[in-house]
Amino acid sequence: MSKPQGLTEHDKDKVLVALKTGVTVKAACPAAGVSYKRVLAQRKVDPEFDDACIEARAYAANEVEKELYAAATAGESWAIKEWLRVHGGDDFKERSTPAAAVQVNVAGKEAEVKSVGELQQTLQERKELLEGE
Fold this sequence. Notes:
The chain is 64% helix and 8% strand. The chain contains six helices and two strands, in the order H-H-H-H-H-E-E-H. A hairpin with a 2-residue loop joins strand 1 and strand 2.
């Protein structure tokens, strides 16, 4: 059995472009016209390519994150719940009763949010605080 050959710069670029769309490394390979084994082998011997693959996947995740945040700040309840689940930590415990309020910690100040509109306002304030840093 022969050892997989290294990827050309063109092959690497095709893999990175595919990864930036959010697909897995395994799914990026056929889209780029290269084998999964060759990509894995290249990542092992080429730290720059490995880092670029990680950065491409992070780019895709960041794009999804931006869309989730936009949906949450637009008042989409599913997005608010997901945002709080992922980013809230102990400040955002899911309550067992529908009437329970959500506890929010914004810039060290705790606030009780009773409606989606208030939560949307709190998220907007938090966004502005983060953008100001």
